[in-house]
Amino acid sequence: MHMGHLDVQGAKMSKSLKNFVTIRHELSREGGLTPRSMRILFMLGGWKERFEVTEGLKKEASAWEDKVNNFFIKVLGTDETRAVNGHSDMSDAPVQTYLAEAKEKFHNALTDSFNTSLAIQAISELITKYNSLGAGTIRFEHTKEVALWVTRMVNMFGLNGTATIDSEIIGWLGIDIPAYAMPYLTLISCIRDRLRKQAQQKGPIHIEDVTDIKQKIHDSPLPDTTETAPYKKVLDSALDSVTQLTASEQSTASIMEVADRIRDEDLWNLGVYLEDRADSPTARIRPVTKELREAKEAQQAKKAKKHIADRSRNIAGPTAKDDKRMISPQELFKNEEYSAWNEDGIPTKDKDGNELTNSKTKKLKKQWDHQKRLHDQWQSQQQT
Fold it and tell me: Can you tell me the distance from the alpha carbon of 26 to that of 35, in angstroms, rounded to the nearest whole number?
């Protein structure tokens, strides 16, 4: 429920001003909000106050959602058998104190004219404090207690589909990896963990590392269905790559090349990411999230710009033209002049969050088409 006026770029939303946007339109719009992100967005404002949806507020809502998302993934990736059980009560005292404080702040916020902004801030502060302690210093039962409370509060706000407030299932929709994929992913992760360990120790990979995995598969056959086929393909490829390493002259670079390909290409394309952990020799198996995709795109764009800048210092004449052709049209306009782009990378809003005019969009589209032709020509030349 929201009783205050909704503002768009400083003006009250109304049909007469032609700035009227419906929830249905926003949810169906390409690159628009999701039901969850829209709820979070409105929770950042007061239910009876004027409320303006700005790019800054959208980013704030997205950051809160990502923070909760990562918290759930981290908790679900906690190995109960490795959780601390032998520490004194002193080591867990802060967690219980933080949870009690969060509950009190949450309750006070909602009894203060249903102040949802302060309520979700209490959740955010609890997660920050939990993360500051490090999962390796917290008893598993207390980690579960914190996670269950956060889950039940987001359920109460309708951020987790039809899940109820008394649910015993930690997390929300969108962070699950299919159960049928886990047997394959566990073995693939094991292979990569071994590759990473040997590279760090500057040691070689032995054929026993392959036969050991194959023996596990023989002893406990993996499910073989249409759904598991993509994961089986990645596992077979990983085993083949390790076998080839054992039969060649190995180097730290060649071992890490295989490890990185498994994580950054093979599994990434299946929507799975292996997250290395400083406090554990094993990676956390987690889904690829919007936050991870954006971080990877930013990293790739940064590398591309650095590569072009480095070449420009040493190259002149015709080759400098090749540098521009190397830029993907999707990355052409990824700069500080704009704040939003469509799926092709064409800007839709300027740096201040204002919608671009039709004439500006047409001009950018022409530049995009020209860059695409140049980039396609360059890619064809590289393949010949």
Answer: 10
